[in-house]
Amino acid sequence: MKKKLIIVAATVLALTAAAWGISTAVEKPVDPGSASFYQDCISKASAEQKAELAKLANDDGIVYKRAALEIIGQIEKGHRRVTGADAESIEARGLSVQQKIALYNEIAGAPDMQRDGSGMDTVVYNMDDRGNRRLVLLNGIAIFESKNADGSYSRTDANGNPLQPKPSSACE
What we know:
6 helices, globular, disordered C terminus, 6 strands, alpha+beta
């Protein structure tokens, strides 16, 4: 009798642990750095959310990560954004691009936009909900952009110094 009770208890314990493991795997958050980011979001999405995610898809190689994570409820709308002070602190550390992105993602949850490829990797963190001010990591170099009245952007470095286009050597 005692042996049967131990076997039943062990079986219940094993089944409970297995069920917990399955639910933990299902609830695992989508990694903003995942190569299959949109597919990972879709796997967690309801039919309505899948339709919203489909609107983000494009052929330009641009991935709208924060918006996708907001759609599936992994990031709350209105979640904290990167500030100038955050960027100043992170940029002063001399970190690798991956380390910087990881720290920015800890703050913001995910970049608003990311585009990789053709030698120009771009990661954008809006510093406000409208994108009037944003941090752009262009191949890991921090550039701050502020939207002008005409919709164009003015660029500055991390210290607020205006960035001017450099003339090509062909013009010299």
